[in-house]
Amino acid sequence: MVDSFLKYISFEKRYSKHTVQSYQNDLEQFQSYICHHFKTEDLSQATQLMVRSWILSLMDSGISSRTVNRKIASLRSFFKFLVSRGQVTENPTSKVRSLKTQKELPSFADEQEFSNYLNSDVFADSFEGRRDQLILEIFYGTGIRQAELLGLKTSDLDERNSTIKVLGKRNKERIIPISRSLLGLIEKYIHEKNHVFSHDQNSFLIVNNSGSQAYPMLIHRVVKKYLTDISSLDKKSPHVLRHTFATHLLNKGADLNAVKDLLGHSSLAATQVYTHNSLEKLKSVFDQAHPKA
């Protein structure tokens, strides 16, 4: 049942590998729980009681409400699939409500502070240093996701039009414009990479120190290493740079729909969270500048 569901969301729903893996982990975790506490491994025999018991155990273990809700959503989708296939008659999650979560504004870097940092002499004069700089510059200059960066190939760069082609969630392609400075960095990096590793032009853009395709932990480690120097940041992850990209665009008056397309969001609701940060900036400007503030 689980295998059929995973194939369904992979090939019919076209979910990303990362998302499919998350669903698989959640389902295996639930299956392990009911096996230990209710002596059954058959997910088709799961009841509302079992689901609620699992949720309570997750909450007791200190897992955040947001993560618990994601796991509930995984179960909900799985049992909805089983009902549609006639493998179960009732969905045990149908009356299970998601937990209330506190809305958190996306963390982002201060514009001047981050710009000054990128222009400072913090990157080593080596292939590794130039690669690390490019990783930060691409995140900040395009707003792409970590998985999208890892999937970039040198052939995705259109030098004539100063754009890159990105393969996003559900295998949706989008074209993102890049600045001349970022284009120059990419071109210099590709030239050096091909010289150092002698790879063909269709190889992955970002590589590790051996010339193979980079992996998530490497990207996360690079971003955290450099963002640690920026005092205004509490969180230090690739996604923070995506938040920074979107927030700085909106602060400069960018159209919300345009930012939505650049980020690859399927709905405007996902992009609107960044308007809260922009409103905070507007309030700050008002407080400083208006005579009656």
Overview of this protein structure:
This protein is mainly alpha-helical and about 290 residues long. The chain has two domains: about 1-85, DNA polymerase, domain 1; about 110-290, hpI Integrase, Chain A (Orthogonal Bundle), CATH 1.10.443. Helices cover about 60% and strands about 5% of the residues. It contains twelve helices and three strands. It has helices spanning about 1-10, 15-40, 50-60, 65-85, 110-120, 125-140, 145-150, 180-195, 215-225, 240-250, 255-265, 270-290; strands at about 155-160, 165, 175. Strands 1-2-3 form a three-stranded antiparallel β-sheet. Strand 1 (about 155-160) and strand 2 (about 165) form a beta hairpin. Helix 2 packs across helix 4 and helix 6 (about 125-140) packs across helix 10 (about 240-250). The N and C termini lie far apart (about 60 Å). The model has no long low-confidence stretch (mean pLDDT about 90). Forms a cyclic heterotetrameric complex composed of two molecules of XerC and two molecules of XerD. One of its GO terms (cellular component) is cytoplasm. One of its GO terms (biological process) is cell division. Belongs to the 'phage' integrase family. XerC subfamily. Keywords: Cell cycle, Cell division, Chromosome partition, Cytoplasm, DNA integration, DNA recombination, DNA-binding.
